Amino acid sequence: MTSSPELDKISAHVWRISAVVVLGSIMSILDTTIVNVALDTLSRDLHTSIDGIQWVATGYLLSLAAVIPVTGWAARRFGAKPVYLTSLVLFTAGSALCGLAGTANELIAFRVLQGIGGGMILPVGQLMMAEAAGPKRMGRVMSVVAVPAMLAPILGPMIGGLILENTAWRWIFFVNVPIGAIAVIAGLRILPTVARQPVQSLDYKGLAMLAIGLPLITYGLAEIGVTNSFTAFKVVLPILAGAALVALFAVYSLRVRRPLLNLRLYARRTFASGSIAMFCVGAALFGGMILLPLYWQTIRGESVFITGLLTAPQGLGAAIVLPLSGRLTDRVGGGPLTLFGVLLTSAATVPFALIGAHTSIVLLCSMMVVRGFGIGFAFMPAMAAAYAALERHELADATPQLNILQRVGGSIGIAVLTVVLQRSLTSALAQPPAHRLAAAASAYGTAFWWAVGLTLAAVIPSIVLARAERAARRAHEHGTPPEPGALAEAMA
Fold it and tell me: Is the pTM of this model over 0.70?
């Protein structure tokens, strides 16, 4: 039986809610891309090394990941709209404080505060979108709404370049203040009020284990670049302690009735494989976004504004294919598209792994567009497929988990690739002066080889995702109960 076209039509009300969500989300995405362009400037002005200043980006992502687990509980306890508006206000205030920071440590601390304030913006917004759209329209809504959000990686570097060339770096944070004010006003007027739901007390034990464990792992990875050793005490202890806390959290969550995160959702192959694919693609995406601006500025000697222009093609490529990937996801499923996107992203990253000090700019920009195509085909179909495996009442649990994986993947990707880059650059400095530039360019190539590996790690979960979706279709065609969730409804 096929669905009625009227039932599949997306109402104007859903699009209005989505527009408000995008407006709020753009702030955090815009802020991330602006900071990436400014890392070289911040490193010089605040007298900090690359592996030190990267915590401006990594600390932000980790604080996002730390607060995201509270999203489901907070949305049920206080209502999605109040939580969303509060997050907007806190994020905007944190942005203002970042602009007032006087040292690298202050900036990193205020970035953490900014991430705590904004950590719920995207997941709560996606939760409201999912509730309004329904599972059968998730692919189209998520992909079309993602197009304006993908403009942030295009506009962010250019705006950041203009700001840095004409004013102080502080204005890359102050720019969020007017956007935040507009987003709050729009949210007050347009977002629907959802009734609160009865909830148990917050799982503080689980929150403590996760909020401490994940940053410890990332900190240990980042310390490899500082100590120049994989076996140093400051490397091994944080990684082992963090891994132990995360493992303890997993065991604990499966035993309590109402855990901070419902890890039982990962028993479904579609949700688990889609989530892992998002994690790997997120690591390669965020890590690559750190490397490219540094390459343009330190190796090619480009200005911050030109760097912004040269960084934009990747976001442009993703924005172009996202509407198509959304429609194809609704038709053929997320697994095949995710696999295609992962392979395309990996192939398009190889030229960067072979990068030199004088590699053609036209070639690199072209490959960035293709890389954006791959990310657009990999990321959103994986997310839509993971959502489609769930019942509607499970969305509040799933949304924060998917966002945590994306942010943690991004923070680990940044930490790993920055460590690889720093170690390679240290070796390059030991070369004779005539060969240092070529050696430094080769250091970026080494880091991009790691980015290729991080992307290829998503191949196996993408294959599992495609097989799980195919099994669900066969089960539906033969009348046997498919994997629980909206995927079965989507096949109706």
Answer: yes
